[in-house]
Design a protein that fits this description.
Layout: H1 2-17, H2 21-28, H3 33-38, H4 45-50, E1 59-61, E2 65-66, H5 80-84, E3 90-91, H6 95-105, E4 111-113, E5 116-117, H7 131-140, E6 146-148, E7 151-152, H8 155-168, E8 177-183, H9 187-197, E9 203-210, H10 212-221, E10 227-229, E11 234-235, H11 237-246, E12 252-254, H12 266-271, E13 277-279, H13 298-304
Parallel strand pairs: 1-4, 4-6, 5-7, 6-8, 8-9, 9-10, 9-11, 10-12, 12-13
Antiparallel strand pairs: 2-3
Helix pairs in contact: 6-7, 7-8, 8-9, 9-10, 10-11
Protein name: F-box/LRR-repeat protein
Domain F-box: 16-57
Pfam families: F-box (PF00646)
């Protein structure tokens, strides 16, 4: 009896190992990148082979990864004192890890999602991500339809990401959705590049201070946009009015929890009445007064809820209101 049970068990193991490659690929498509790169290749040779198929990497979701012994090689080194204090149980994927996933996709990736890095200014988590990794990805993944770039609470990194987008967006002819655009001085130029190169573009998520220059560029360059998410932004009443008036094909506009306009303003609600999904709950006018002094951005930072004690000047405008290179061989 025991011998029969052993035979059945061995048969089960063999069936998994010899599972049709097409079936394995269908299963692996549902797995995260961490499992695909760090776990699956070590099960058996057939699984390793299936894990290299580009179809498995059409969706690249670079989630935060568990900081464990097996994944330390795939993350930027964390100071021992931070590990000792258990400050980070998860870390962003490193540049090397990103390159492995990109290389395996062979240019077939249509969806790329980075996590949001909501750390404070002095937090070393900001140091994990290299903008060169994003440039490497965009250079090789021209079929992208959905792109969610990393969002940082530290503005200079947002500026660097926008500069990368300015350089690379001409390659993304199939782009339909972009998030989360960091609203700094280069944002209007990014939006204009989208107008020029991305004819099927229909959805934008932005975060930060929506200046008049940015809102005007949205209206001018993206009048047919269908989905616009400005949740938690600082957005002036008139700029929202302009967006509502100029983007007549909006199907979703999320302007909830914003600052500098009232969510229950009658004019806003009237102009938004044709939009299938309009959200403005929690949006209020605060008492921040903006001026044209380029040397005094304190009010701007207050409106965003950001501590300006370590302020780094990121805006060149004087009036912001007015305007693995190769794959790893596991086996």
């Amino acid at each position: 009896m025991e011998e029969k049970g052993s035979t059945i068990e061995n048969s089960w193991v063999r069936r998994w190992e010899d599972l049709n490659t097409d079936c394995l690929i269908k299963i692996f498509e549902k797995l995260g990148l961490e499992s695909l790169i760090l776990d699956i290749p070590f099960v058996c040779k057939s699984w390793y082979k299936a894990s290299l198929d580009p179809l498995v990497y059409k969706v690249l979701r670079f989630e935060f990864m568990n900081v464990e012994e097996k994944t330390m090689w795939a993350t930027t080194k964390i100071p021992d004192d931070l590990l000792a204090e258990n400050m980070y149980s998860k870390a962003p994927p490193s540049t090397e890890f990103i390159k492995v996933a990109v290389n395996r996709s062979c240019g077939m990736a249509t969806e790329v999602v980075f996590p949001e890095y909501s750390a404070r200014l002095a937090d070393p988590m900001e140091e994990f991500f290299s903008v060169s990794a994003l440039e490497y990805l965009l250079e090789r993944c021209s079929a992208i339809k959905t792109l969610i770039v990393p969002y940082f609470s530290f503005f200079y990194l947002g500026r660097e990401i926008n500069q990368c987008l300015l350089k690379m967006i001409s390659k993304l002819k199939h782009l339909e959705f972009l998030g989360t655009l960091t609203c700094v001085y280069s944002s209007p130029h990014v939006i204009n590049e989208i107008r020029i190169h991305c004819q099927n573009f229909q959805s934008l998520t932005a975060k930060g201070f929506i200046s008049m220059a940015i809102s005007s560029e949205i209206v001018t360059s993206l009048p047919d946009i269908k989905r616009l998410v400005l949740r938690d932004c600082s957005l002036h009443h008139q700029d929202l009015i302009d967006i509502l008036s100029g983007c007549s094909k909006l199907e979703l506009l999320d302007a909830s929890n914003c600052r500098n306009f009232n969510g229950d303003d009658p004019m806003i609600l009237k102009l938004a009445s044709h939009i299938n999904i309009f959200k403005s709950e929690g949006s209020v006018v605060n008492n921040v007064v903006y001026d044209d002094d380029d040397d005094d951005d304190d009010n701007f930072y207050v409106s965003l809820g950001v501590d300006n004690s370590n302020h780094v000047d990121f805006c060149d405008d004087s009036d912001d209101r007015g305007k693995w290179d190769s794959d790893l061989h596991f086996l």
